[in-house]
Amino acid sequence: MMEGGFMGTGKKVLIVLLLMACSYGAGFLTASDVAWQDVRSAFDGLGDDIDHETPFISNPPLDSLDRVYVEEVVDGDTIDVRFPSQKSERVRLLGIDTPESYGDNDPSKWLGIDDAIVLDSWGIKAKEFTTQELAHSCVYLQYDPVAGERGYYGRLLAYVILENETNFNALLIEEGYARAYTSAECEYLETFVALEEEAQDKGKGVWSDASYAAKEGVQIDTINPYEEYVVITNYTDDPIEMAGWTLEDKAGYVYSFPTGFVLEAGKTVRVHTFAGEDTETSLYWSNTENIWNNSSDEAYLYDKAHSRVDEFIY
After folding, report:
1. Per residue in 197-251, pLDDT tens?
2. 40 is catalytic
3. Average pLDDT, integer, range 74-89
4. Residue 252 belongs to what domain range?
5. Minimal CA–CA distance to 151: which of 77, 97, 196, 93?
6. What's the CA gap between 110 and 107, in Å, rounded?
7. Domain final position from 209, 233, 267
8. Average pLDDT, stretch 273-290?
9. 179 an active-site residue?
10. Chain Cα centroid distance, residue 132
């Protein structure tokens, strides 16, 4: 009893000291609130044996990022944080998507997953993992020059960086708790897609319940109805001459790929609804009104013989 009571008390003291150290470092407490040197020495070496096999992603120096306290984990990819100013914000982890922990999951967004119940289960597991790693700790927020600081719903968009400089967004994909979110651009999107494919190959996390063949041919990967573009990838080993190919929706809108456009092996192109200058990675439909409905729609890809190559329904 005495030994058990001592261990329980010690654990509580450890947690309190950790919260104090984190809060002090982020500016949540003043110097008079805690003897920082004593707290720091108490934690020397703590967590040195924790080793997440994350890929190399070049993070800015930690002291150049916003250091925040994680107040609550809302979902596997969403957290509530508090800044040193005491302002609270909701943060959506950028470039990734975990299954929803509250249900309402769409298997069509997850390669090889046919049952929403599977995603419901992994949504809960993803939230548990994020809670275990982040809840009531201090982390750093890295914003993205491509995606911007806020998303469609006004939430902060950020990579969450741990004290050991691990990119937590990447870690979620690597461990199979998340997929790369290809419906919006970000600096690390290609890295995240590669990590997802590696997790699929290893059957990690949610992909352990998947049954799928390798991607092949030319496919519509996703549609972003808010930003109005379609993502198409060439999964073959050869370049595809797409002059004469068309992209169509169920309402009868038709986009014709331009003469001379070649989608190289393994490369992706985005077909944007509105006007712009065509490049190897972006094509423009030059429409003056929205094509893709926010709630649901269908896209069809046809080759020059007007044979259906792929379809995407959401």
Report:
1. 899 889 899 998 775 545 789 999 888 887 899 999 999 999 999 999 999 999 9
2. no
3. 96
4. 218-313
5. 93
6. 5
7. 209
8. 96
9. no
10. 18
Distance CA 97, CA 77 (A): 6
Active-site entry in 92, 196, 248, 270: 92
Distance between CA atoms of residues 206 and 151, nearest Å = 26
Residues 204, 235, single domain; the answer is no
Tell me what pLDDT residue 41 has.
Answer: 38
Decide which of 190, 209, 228 is a domain's last residue: 209
270 annotated active-site = no
Average of per-residue pLDDT across 52-77: 84
Same domain as 257, residue 226 = yes
pLDDT tens digits for range 94-127: 999 999 988 788 888 888 887 888 888 899 999 9
The yes-or-no verdict on residue 167 having pLDDT over 60 is yes
- Kindly state the helix (H) or strand (E) to which residue 125 belongs, with its residue range: helix 116-134
DSSP track, 87-122: -EEEEEETTEEPPPTTS---GGGSTT---HHHHHHH
Of the residues 89, 100, 174, 196, only one is catalytic, namely 100
Out of 71, 90, 155, 163, the active site residue is 155
